[in-house]
Automatic annotation (TrEMBL):
Protein name in the entry: YicC family protein
CC cofactor: a divalent metal cation
Signal peptide: none
Keyword Protein transport (UniProt): no
Endoribonuclease YicC-like C-terminal domain location: 172-288
Lineage of producing organism: Bacteria, Pseudomonadati, Bacteroidota, Flavobacteriia, Flavobacteriales
PANTHER family tied to this protein: UPF0701 PROTEIN YICC
Family: Belongs to the YicC/YloC family.
Coiled-coil residue windows: 148-175
Cited Pfam families: YicC-like_C (PF08340), YicC-like_N (PF03755)
Boundaries of every Endoribonuclease YicC-like N-terminal domain copy: 2-155
Organism: Mesohalobacter halotolerans
Keyword annotations: Coiled coil, Endonuclease, Hydrolase, Nuclease
């Protein structure tokens, strides 16, 4: 069953007074590209998480965002008093005696400088790590579910496109049966109109050469085979977008050859319709895992 590379998942872990939201978004990409946005305190887990995500999602542009909400954040923040006092003393040294600046103004400037505030570091326990990993896995499961649902929708679209191509191919086969006779009749009529005396055996030889040159029997057979192979690949247990892309390229080659060899206006119109359906397939193919 095919899967889309577009997906979304979100889960929450509750660690004491902290709420950690794990959000994963995926888009299509030729390879896998995982990007993390999270607090620096969690960077030590990034390597293991990255391996887990690559193993699970396989391909796509993947953005992982982890936000921490601390219910008691205000209690964990303190002033860096020695540093603030040093800032104020340095500011007083810079300001001349004639400059008028009250202590409140100096304090305001000092508090806006780097590291004026200190936050108490949170030590994550083994149980907290398990909860966080569970939240990540839950978000990954939601992404996979989303991808499967999108894949089902794409499969229906592909089936409709294939049916349209097959319908046009069937019509081409019907036209092709009478095409040879039309060519033969047209050539004979032209020679008779010119009142030329011609060797009938030579005419038949030239006609055979002409028919072989513009014969599309092999192309029709191969295109039908590619359509069936595309359907079989769609129904495989594992999604394989790259393989489907290769098959669609082969379908395009056969359709183009039919158009160039047919030498028939109606067939060429049908070829244009088939190209249109194939182009729709190729557009969606970029999003298949």
């Amino acid at each position: 069953m095919i899967q889309s590379m577009t997906g979304y998942g979100k889960a929450t872990a509750v660690l004491n007074d902290k709420h950690i939201d794990v959000e994963i978004r995926t888009l299509n990409s030729k390879n896998i590209d995982v990007n993390f946005r999270m607090p620096s305190d969690l960077r030590l887990f990034e390597l293991d998480w990255r391996k887990n995500i690559i193993k699970t999602l396989k391909r796509g542009k993947i953005d992982v965002q982890i936000n921490i909400e601390n219910a008691q954040q205000s209690q964990n923040i303190t002033f860096n008093k020695p540093l603030v006092k040093s800032y104020i003393e340095n500011l007083q040294d810079i300001i001349s005696v004639r400059d008028v600046m009250d202590k409140a103004k100096l304090l305001e400037i000092a508090m806006s400088l780097p590291d004026a505030f200190q936050s108490q570091e949170y030590e994550m326990t083994k149980d907290d790590q398990i909860k966080l990993n569970t939240a990540l896995n839950k978000a990954l499961q939601q992404v996979e579910t989303f991808r499967h649902q999108e894949g089902e929708n794409l499969m229906e679209t592909f089936k409709n496109n294939l049916e349209e191509i097959e319908r046009h191919l069937k019509r081409i086969k019907e036209i092709d049966q009478s095409r040879v006779e039309k060519v033969k009749t047209r050539l004979k009529s032209t020679l008779e109109d010119l009142s030329l005396d011609y060797d009938k055996n030579r005419f038949e030889q030239e006609l055979i050469y002409y028919i072989e040159k513009y014969d599309i029997s092999e192309e029709k057979t191969r295109l039908k085979s590619h359509l069936n192979y595309f359907r079989e690949t769609l129904n495989l247990a594992e999604s394989n977008g790259k393989k489907l892309n290769f098959i669609s390229q082969e379908m395009g080659r056969e359709i183009n050859t039919i158009g160039s060899k047919a030498n028939d206006a109606e067939i060429q119109n049908l070829v244009v319709e088939m190209k249109d359906q194939l182009e729709k397939i190729k557009e969606q193919m970029l999003n298949i895992l």
